[in-house]
Design a protein that fits this description.
Elements: E1 4-8, H1 9-18, H2 50-62, H3 66-79, E2 84-88, E3 94-98, H4 100-110, H5 114-127, H6 131-148, E4 156-161, E5 166-167, E6 171-189, E7 192-193, E8 200-210, E9 214-224, E10 229-238, E11 241-247, E12 255-262, E13 267-272, E14 275-276, E15 278-281, E16 286-293, E17 303-308, E18 313-317, E19 346-349, E20 352-356, E21 368-370, E22 378-379, E23 383-391, E24 396-401, E25 404-405, E26 414-422, E27 426-436, E28 441-450, E29 462-473, H7 484-493, E30 501-503, H8 510-513, H9 518-523, H10 525-534, E31 539-548, E32 550-559, E33 565-573, H11 578-595, E34 600-607, E35 611-614, E36 627-635, E37 640-652, E38 657-662, E39 679-682
Parallel strand pairs: 5-10, 22-28, 29-30, 29-31
Antiparallel strand pairs: 1-29, 2-3, 4-6, 6-7, 6-8, 6-9, 9-10, 11-12, 11-26, 12-16, 13-14, 13-17, 15-16, 17-18, 19-20, 21-23, 23-26, 24-25, 24-27, 27-28, 31-32, 32-33, 34-35, 34-39, 35-38, 36-37, 36-39, 37-38
Helix pairs in contact: 2-3, 3-4, 4-5, 4-6, 5-6, 7-11
């Protein structure tokens, strides 16, 4: 039976041209090549070429003529032995898909010839992986494993990451390999199944898990096809606490400030007013510090930053210290100076501290208080560093933040502690509790609001339009409404919990596209680009459905501005119920998100003011022409930042990428000049 092709809606007709998606009876050149109709496949004259045999083999496969299909696929392989997309036949004629190894392997599988099926399916997977191949290769391996029987041994687990036992991240990727003599059937990481591309005797797994501050035990469970199970536990300590910092009482300024800091990961540095302190290791993990303050500019606060070895920081201003009067106050200025309550806190000459009072700098702190954190405060980043100021009446027993213990100095009544917290979108109540050694309890709470950070606001997401649906081959045995797949993809990708794409409203597209003529779009590459200028999207996708014993679903993605294909997401499997359909659509949506991950990096070099080098790389799935957002920190203490421009990737390497700054559409003037250390995020 000759495969059929059905286009749903005007949008599908237009998108057919842009995606350069051929009908099965045509050989079509990829974008940029001159397109001509061809009789290279099943229709027209059979000239005995390898592509004729492949096309006829597909037709015989679809009609159940398996022995004849085997002969045709084997003959096609003698002419060209490699599975690929856009296989060149002659001149500027191409086949959009040429997979003789895969189709021959599937034919052998349906005939029950499993060993032969395994040979050709594994060859196809190695040459050009596809969802259809992976589905049947998995089925073949499972059937062969069941025929071989149980080896009686449980699986073996090898964890390759994390390599560190102490982490500063709340999210971490756990990777490894599971091996089994029968067949690995399932891997769970932290109770959640890890996606396995293919069942096999050796499979790699990768799973991102969310961790809590303190000790975390993560279980990895591996099961083989016979039901044998192996469990391995990882113990991970998450340290998101900045050092606890306490200053000694009654220091004299200008003079020497001393104190102690405590951190489970070790204190790395402490600076006061930009001056590095000398550190001394004491017992019980306590670190002493000493810094001499000779001059203090009048317009600079006495600010300190204490960091641990993992990069966590406690930031604040020196408070609760006494300042002694200078022994030689300058005579030319103000022989008398009175402040509120009859004292002054400091006298400055030429912005240098010349005299200070012996009175405390300010009123006594509350026993427990948040520093710089107020009810209703708005944040745009997911994580914020919360600092607690403690001025307790006696030694401490415990300090908790959001119900979890936080490190502190037990014998110090006056100190500051900090922790990085993850905020959910919307309102967040932050609660702190202090328990003194005598059992006295003090509590404080504050409610803050997290709004979406600039890079995930809808207007700053990668815009995607899915315009049409194409059905190839035999009719799908399950009746679904027109455009069901596209509507479901829009629901999944544009749902309230998804923050990757900005889905272009389909209702606004038909009016724009109805006036376009298909012949004009087919006429030249320049006319095809008209669609990219009319459709308000950076990516344009078309859904392809193909049925041949199993359903294949694909989304072919093109750059709107060039018409060039950039990626394909595809899934395959049986469809007997609507639930099967929904499962494939959900997996297809997840693939689309994974193809364009939101990755963050930094600018490592700037050339000529508009060419930037970043640490984003190939393994981050960064591609040429990918748009980047440029951000700059506005408040490092609170991780606040704002977008100041955009760039487009021009080159990607193993450990770097190059991008060119582009102006915003609304502003023809140059953007704020980028500089080393600025943040880049894939759009």
């Amino acid at each position: 039976m000759t495969p059929r092709i059905v286009l749903r809606g005007t949008c599908a007709l237009v998108m057919l041209a842009v995606a350069v998606l051929p009908a099965p009876g045509c050989a079509t050149a990829p974008a940029g090549a001159k397109e001509k109709p061809s009789r290279a496949m099943g229709k027209g004259v059979f000239r005995g070429r390898w592509w004729n045999y492949y096309a006829r083999g597909r037709e015989r496969f679809d009609t159940g003529l398996y022995p004849d299909a085997v002969k045709d696929f084997e003959t096609a392989l003698k002419g060209r032995s490699t599975d690929q997309r856009w296989a060149r036949t002659y001149g500027l004629h191409f086949l959009p898909e040429y997979f003789p190894n895969r189709e021959l392997g599937i034919t052998f599988y349906l005939q029950g010839r499993l060993e032969k099926a395994l040979k050709y399916l594994e060859k196809s997977h190695a040459q050009y992986p596809s969802a259809r191949c992976d589905y049947y290769l998995g089925e073949v391996r499972v059937r062969l494993a069941r025929e071989a029987g149980d080896d009686g041994e449980p699986p073996r687990i090898e964890v390759t990451s994390p390599r560190e036992e102490r982490l500063a991240a709340r999210e971490y990727v756990i990777e490894g390999t599971v091996m089994d003599g029968t067949l690995v059937h399932e891997v769970l990481v932290g109770g959640t199944p890890a996606p396995l591309p293919l069942p096999g005797k050796s499979v790699a797994f990768r799973r991102t898990i969310r961790l809590e501050p303190g000790e975390n035990t993560v279980k990895i469970v591996a099961r083989d096809l016979a039901g044998h199970e192996t469990v391995e536990s990882l113990s991970l300590l998450v340290d998101v606490d900045g050092p606890a910092v306490s200053f000694d009482a009654s220091p004299s300024l200008p003079g020497i400030l001393t104190g102690v800091a405590l951190d489970a990961s070790g204190v790395a540095s402490l600076e006061i007013a930009g001056i590095s302190a000398a550190l001394t290791q004491h017992r019980d993990g306590v670190t002493g510090f000493r810094v001499e303050i000779a001059k203090i500019p009048a317009n600079a606060p006495l600010r300190y930053v204490c960091s641990d070895t993992l990069g966590n920081r406690t930031v604040g201003e020196v408070r609760g210290v006494k300042r002694a009067a200078s022994s030689t106050p300058p005579k030319p200025l103000a022989s008398r100076a009175m402040g509120k309550d009859g004292f002054i806190s400091g006298l400055f000459v030429n912005t240098v501290l010349a005299a200070v009072s012996t009175k405390d700098e300010g009123p006594r702190l509350n026993v427990l208080s948040f520093r710089h954190l107020k009810d209703g405060q708005v944040f745009r980043r997911e994580d914020v560093a919360v600092v607690l100021d403690i001025d307790a009446p006696g030694p401490l027993r415990e300090v908790r933040l959001t119900g979890t213990p936080i490190q502190f100095l037990p014998d110090r009544t006056f100190q500051a502690v900090s922790r990085r917290l993850i905020l959910a979108l919307g309102r967040n109540e932050i609660h702190a509790q202090l328990t003194c050694a005598n059992g006295e309890i003090h509590e404080v709470s504050v409610t803050v609001i997290r709004e979406p950070s600039p890079e995930i606001l809808r207007e700053n997401r990668l815009s995607l339009a899915i315009l049409g649906e194409v059905i190839e081959g035999n009719p799908v045995p399950l009746s679904v409404p027109t455009d069901y797949v596209i509507d479901e993809l829009y629901d999944w990708l544009g749902g309230p919990k998804r923050q990757r794409f900005r889905m272009v409203n389909r209702e606004h597209l038909d009016d724009t596209l109805m006036e376009l003529k298909l012949s004009e779009l087919l006429g030249s590459r320049e006319n095809r680009l008209v669609l990219g200028r009319l459709v308000p999207a950076e990516l344009i996708g078309i859904v392809v459905q193909k049925y041949s014993h199993t359903l294949e679903l694909k989304v072919m993605l093109n750059r709107a501005e060039t018409g060039v294909e950039v990626a394909i997401a595809e899934v395959a499997g049986p469809v007997e119920t609507r639930g099967d359909y929904d499962r494939l659509i959900r997996n297809l949506a997840l693939q689309l998100e994974q193809l364009f991950p939101r990755v963050e990096g930094t600018i490592t070099r700037v050339k000529d003011g508009h060419i930037i080098k970043t640490d984003l790389r190939e393994s981050d799935l960064v591609r040429p022409a990918m748009p980047l957002l440029l951000l700059r920190e506005t408040d490092p203490d609170w991780n606040e930042r704002e977008i100041f421009g955009q760039a487009r990737v021009t080159q990607v390497g193993p450990d770097f990428s190059i991008a060119r700054i582009v102006n915003r559409e609304a502003e023809q003037s140059a953007e704020t000049p980028p500089r080393k250390g600025d943040i880049v995020v894939t759009k």
